[in-house]
């Protein structure tokens, strides 16, 4: 038999390498497949409210003037810096020079003006149009400078510009972004196989630091059992928001995986109707808060995953104040407070929407309240009924819900909001926050706002909805927390 000379040479080279103690280098893995439970309905963050749009595209393909960091801080993005006028009304942004859209067109101040004017236009379909409501005008100073003038002070303006709904798009490609998105980010669109996956490729012409991965696939698996199987077989490299927390113990025991536990923007509360007697009495609300054992709820409803909170603010936010001790579990104190309020034989309704944290947690809370002497009538409702009966009609005593919008403590200043607080002193704090632009002053006011609603026992604050992720143990750089709805892949890499 005649030997293949090329194969023979290869064998000789391999043998020589082994003899010298040298092993052929394995090619580094340069791609990642990421699991998601929901598929986005389109791929335009400025044209849809679905969280899955940002989960694929935020910071990966599209960028705004500012962006959220992994712990919720506001960082420069397409704006490298900015100045704010003394009256807080004029923001002048210095833009990145040399940045390009993925179709090769240059990014400049005209694109910023186009994007912001489009988002705030009367006919805008932007799901978060309110983010742009205070903009009076957008003016191009020069190609690398844009001036935004507000109609009134808004200290949250830089925060608003970090939302996915505020990403910068180009007039040449904006109309086609729903199917073939064109941004300025470090990844660019490759393909969308509807019902299965979206693929992104590394952008070789990115203006900033190059990403470590050449290719990212977001694969959509709605069934928790199928998600578990895909991780176990290696079909997925990570599932940042894994849908079955009861399976996490199996991943924790397997050295092939890392379990990543963080928090989301979901403040989960036992909401109380502050205008409905006897819940209009702060002493009764305080009694309810002290009747609740947060640990038992987290263990029973979330399999131990979740962060206790004592106010309506995400623990991963740098301005967070831990106020959990102020409403610590103390059923005897609850009984004493009810007696102080002159309340006997109290029966309250508890309306529970579909999520398991609400249904499971509601049963536990009802038992805890009964221990403190408060009877509870549970009614399970569907989302449509919850929205109409609880959220809009305010026909409830108690309910459990997770508020997932970023830094949404401002809802407590709204008179018509479903739990009906609207305290004048709290509104004054929020008005001062709107005017403040100094970071230290804003932190001071945000912390005052947290303390005020905790002092008033507006609601019983339960836990921050956890972000439970699973990843290949060698895949690094995934965000543990979720300060916005994103699977940011810009810092993700494989450990050799």
What would you note in describing this structure?
The protein is of the alpha+beta class and 496 residues long. Helices cover 28% and strands 23% of the residues. The chain has 13 helices and 19 strands. The chain has helices spanning 5-19, 51-57, 109-120, 157-160, 224-233, 248-252, 282-290, 294-302, 331-341, 356-371, 383-392, 424-435, 439-455; strands at residues 31-36, 66-68, 74-76, 79-84, 90-95, 135-142, 145-150, 187-193, 197-202, 215-220, 238-239, 257-272, 307-308, 346-352, 374-380, 398-403, 460-472, 475-476, 493-494. Helix 10 (356-371) links the parallel strand 14 (346-352) and strand 15. Helix 7 (282-290) packs antiparallel against helix 9 (331-341) and helix 8 runs antiparallel to helix 10 (356-371). It is globular, with a radius of gyration of 26 Å. It starts with a helix and ends with a strand. Mean pLDDT is 92; it is low at 1-24.
What are the low-pLDDT stretches, counting only 5+ consecutive residues below 50?
Answer: 1-24
Shape: globular
Q: Biggest β-sheet: count, sense, barrel?
A: 7 strands, mixed
* Helical content band: 25-40%
Strand content: 15-25%
**Overall pLDDT:** 92
How many helices does DSSP assign?
13
The assigned structural class equals alpha+beta
Please give the number of β-strands.
Answer: 19
Radius of gyration: 26 Å
Question: Termini separation (Å)?
Answer: 42 Å
């Amino acid at each position: 038999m005649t030997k293949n000379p090329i194969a023979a040479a290869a064998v000789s080279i391999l043998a020589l390498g082994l003899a010298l103690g040298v092993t052929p280098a394995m090619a580094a893995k340069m791609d990642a497949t990421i699991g998601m439970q929901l598929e986005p309905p389109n791929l335009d963050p400025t044209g849809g409210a679905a969280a899955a749009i940002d989960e694929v595209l935020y910071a990966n393909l599209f960028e705004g003037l500012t962006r959220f960091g992994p712990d919720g801080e506001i960082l420069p993005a397409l704006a490298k810096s900015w100045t704010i006028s003394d009256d807080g009304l004029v923001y002048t942004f210095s833009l990145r020079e040399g940045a390009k859209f993925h179709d090769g067109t240059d990014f400049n101040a005209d694109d910023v003006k186009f994007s912001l004017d489009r988002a705030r236009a009367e006919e805008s379909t932007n799901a978060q149009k309110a983010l742009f409501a205070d903009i009076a005008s957008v003016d191009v100073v020069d190609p690398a400078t844009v001036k935004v003038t507000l109609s009134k002070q808004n200290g949250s303006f830089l925060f608003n510009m970090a939302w996915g709904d505020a990403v910068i798009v180009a007039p040449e490609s904006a109309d086609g972004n729903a199917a073939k998105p064109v941004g300025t980010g470090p990844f660019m669109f490759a393909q969308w196989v509807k019902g299965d996956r979206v693929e992104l490729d590394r952008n070789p012409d990115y203006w900033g630091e190059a990403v470590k991965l050449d290719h990212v696939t977001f694969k959509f698996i709605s069934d928790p059992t199928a998600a578990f199987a895909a991780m176990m077989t290696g079909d997925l490299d990570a599932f940042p928001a894994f849908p079955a927390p009861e399976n996490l113990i199996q991943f924790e025991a397997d050295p092939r995986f890392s379990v990543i536990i963080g928090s989301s923007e979901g403040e989960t509360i036992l909401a109380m109707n502050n205008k409905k007697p006897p819940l209009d009495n702060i002493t009764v609300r305080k009694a309810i808060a002290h009747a609740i054992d947060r640990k038992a709820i987290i263990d029973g409803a979330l399999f131990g995953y979740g962060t206790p909170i004592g106010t309506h603010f995400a623990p991963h936010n740098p301005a967070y104040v831990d106020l959990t001790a102020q409403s610590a579990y103390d059923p005897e104190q609850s009984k004493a407070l009810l007696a102080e309020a002159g309340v006997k034989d109290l029966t309250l309704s508890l309306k529970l929407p579909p999520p398991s944290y609400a249904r499971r947690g509601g049963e536990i809370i009802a038992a805890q309240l009964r221990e403190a002497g408060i009877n509870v009538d549970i009614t399970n409702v569907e989302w449509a009924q919850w929205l109409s009966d609880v959220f809009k009609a305010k026909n409830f005593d108690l309910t459990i819900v997770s508020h997932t919008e970023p830094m949404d403590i401002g809802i407590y200043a709204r008179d018509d909001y479903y739990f009906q607080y609207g305290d004048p002193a709290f509104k004054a704090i929020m008005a001062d926050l709107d005017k403040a632009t100094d970071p230290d002053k804003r932190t001071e006011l945000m912390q005052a706002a947290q303390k005020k609603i905790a002092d008033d026992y507006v609601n019983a604050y339960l836990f921050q909805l956890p972000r439970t992720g699973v990843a290949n143990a060698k895949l690094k750089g995934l965000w543990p927390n979720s300060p916005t709805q994103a699977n940011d892949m810009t810092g993700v890499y494989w450990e050799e």
